[in-house]
Amino acid sequence: MYDIFCISAGQFQSKKKNSVFSNKHRYLNYGLLGIASTLGRSGYNPIVIHGLFDPPSTILNICEQYGISGTRNPILLSIPSFFALEWARTLSALIKEYYPNKTIIVGGRWVIGNQDQWIKSYLGVDLVIPGLVGANILDIVTSMNKFSTMASATKFRSNNSTTIEYRHLHEKDLFQPSIEVSTGCGMGCSFCEEKDIKLSKLKPATIVAEEMLAINKSSAFVEATPYLESSMFIATREWAEQLYAERQKRGISCNWRVETRVDKLNARNIPTLAKAGLKVVDLGLESASLKQLERMNKTNNPKSYLTTASELIQTAYDNGIWVKVNVLLYAGETSALIDETVDWLSSIRKAIKGVSAGPVIVYGLPSDREVFIKELEGLGATAIDTDVIGVTNISPSSTIDYEASIEISKNICREFMDSRDYYDLKSFSYFSRDYTYQEFQRDIEGLVQKDVSFKL
Q: Which segments constitute the Elp3/MiaA/NifB-like radical SAM core domain (predicted)?
């Protein structure tokens, strides 16, 4: 039986309005699975369970089937976003009702920030850990375990491996795997949560290849397509060539996906990366309006930025790589500024696999979001409170309110993405791995255009 339960908090509602596809998603909390892997290498037998869009009571029932009543170790509860906060509160209350002696430890750096005491009180839990936990989880678990001693816990010290072990994942065959290759960003974009966090060095290609091989060897991940997790993927030609060579040596053939900035992935390296298995790029273009790019602090040279973006997207297309372009409706938007972005995208339409568009959202409790909201208001935006704690919607300007920005965003997506494109991109990384295209086609039958953000 399992002796440590690691739960990734689910959501009562999605970031985008709940749809027929919401419960098809399997977003892997790879940070929590990494913590569980560390615990597993240290003598524990953890299990990671994702709340997804299931009720908290359903997740607690799963925990009971796995033997949660028989363990005295703390329960680890990860909150990946503010949309998961209420769900986490409900689950914590259920645990305390049925198992009042159990200890709950909460993590989730994007939500907690410096508000750990407020989060602790609001959720009714025993301990909230701000920031990154990493290997410190061993000491944290030991210190909170009333029935153990430091001596007995340190007996199984973990090695320095950062490899994620999927044997600890509940329903692992339904998730696409991830490989963390770097952390941070530090580029200073106004809307980015990692704008002040220094980018770490890219994980060596040899180690990445070893992790890909481990994924390939798992029967749960036949034809898996891992996401190489990094807020800003920056690969040199030497790194790409080494990854290609290491994959060839090990017989690895899986395709993979990354997220990056326009000005950080060199188009000259694309052919080698394609040979090394790169298939999908989530590209943070954000806008093709010269004014909006400057307002976002995205670049000091918008014209050069867009030239670079066009070259990168076309080169990716020429090498068989799908590019999904991310577009952000920012403060100060007007119809004319949005048209600049749409017109630019239209000029390279053939090379784009899809578009993800949406208005800027401000995350954080009141004291954490004041500065950014004032910055947006200075550009003509208006903040709108929501019923989700820590989430503030934005009306971009006096001529485009929040509801209008949602419709404009959907129209942009529809303009550049049909149902097949949408399914291809979602199934590569996010849809449950058993959700077939035939099932998807059945699910869109009877839907009308306003229900979806792709062209029917």
A: 175-377
> Mind listing the pLDDT tens digit for each residue in 374-421?
999 999 999 999 999 999 999 999 999 999 999 999 999 999 999 999
- 89, part of any domain: yes
φ and ψ at 129, to 5 degrees? -110, 115
- Whether the predicted pLDDT of 358 surpasses 50: yes
Q: Each residue of 413-443: b (16+ CB within 10 Å) or e?
A: bbebbebebbbbbbbbbbbbbebeeeebeee
Q: Which two tokens stand for residue 403?
A: 């509801």
In this structure, what CATH number is given to the domain that contains residue 57? 3.40.50.280
Q: What is the CATH number of the domain that holds 413?
A: 3.30.750.200
Q: Is 293 in the same domain as 421?
A: yes
More confident residue, 159 or 294: 294
CA distances from 4 to 37, 39, 49, 71 (A): 11, 9, 11, 7
**Cα gap 414→421, rounded to integer Å:** 10
Token output for 350 = 């053939």
Number of domains in the chain: 2
Question: 55 is in which domain, residue-wise?
Answer: 4-144
Specify the pairing of strand 127-129 against strand 104-107.
parallel
Q: Is the pTM of this model over 0.85?
A: yes
